[in-house]
Design a protein that fits this description.
The chain folds into two domains: 11-43; 50-149. The chain has five helices and six strands; from the N terminus they run βββββααβααα. It has helices at 63-73, 81-97, 105-119, 121-131, 137-149; strands spanning 11-19, 24-31, 37-43, 50-52, 58-60, 102-104. A hairpin with a 4-residue loop joins strand 1 and strand 2. The chain is elongated.
C-alpha cells in the first residue's frame, strides 16, 4: 500500500477491524519510511451481474429494482421492508456465488417468488400475476390452486 504522505510502498498494519456490518475491513497502517499513519478499507470485489431480459436486452443487476418490485407486491401487507431487503440481499448473494455472470429475469423472478411464498402468500400471488403475465382468470386460478395444494 502506497503511503499517501511520502509515497513509500511499505507499511505495517497497526489495527484491523470489521466495518460497515462486516462487509469491509478497516485497516490502520503506519508507513515504514515516514512513520505517519493512515487508514485503508478492504472490500470484496463483486463481479458485475448482467440481467438478460425477456426481449433479449441486457442490463446491470439492480438490487433496488428487485426491492421495488417486491414492495409493490407487498403493498398494504404486513411485510416489513427489512424482510424484503434481506430477501434481496440473499438473492444477490446467491447470484454472486453462482459462476454465471449473466442471469435471466425468469430465474430471478422464480427466486423472488419462492421466497415471497414463504413470507406472504398474497404478495406471492401479486408478484406472480405480474411476473407470469396471467392471460386470463383460468391461468390465475391454476396458480392459486397450486398454492392451495402446496399447503
Amino acid at each position: 500500500m502506497k503511503c499517501p504522505f511520502c509515497g513509500y510502498t511499505e507499511s505495517k498494519v497497526i489495527d484491523s477491524r470489521p466495518a460497515e456490518e462486516s462487509t469491509t475491513i478497516r485497516r490502520r497502517r503506519e508507513c515504514l519510511a515516514c512513520q505517519k499513519r493512515f487508514t485503508t478499507y478492504e472490500i470484496i470485489e463483486r463481479l458485475p451481474l448482467v440481467v438478460v431480459k425477456r426481449d433479449g436486452s441486457r442490463q446491470s443487476f439492480d438490487k433496488v429494482k428487485l426491492i421495488n418490485g417486491m414492495v409493490r407486491a407487498c403493498e398494504k401487507r404486513p411485510v416489513p421492508l427489512a424482510t424484503l431487503e434481506d430477501i434481496a440481499d440473499d438473492i444477490e448473494q446467491e447470484l454472486q456465488s453462482n459462476l454465471e455472470r449473466e442471469i435471466s429475469t425468469v430465474e430471478i423472478g422464480e427466486m423472488v417468488m419462492s421466497r415471497l411464498k414463504e413470507v406472504d402468500e398474497v404478495a406471492y400471488v401479486r408478484f406472480a400475476s405480474v411476473y407470469r403475465s396471467f392471460k386470463d382468470i383460468n391461468t390465475f386460478m391454476e396458480e392459486l390452486t397450486k398454492l392451495l395444494e402446496g399447503k
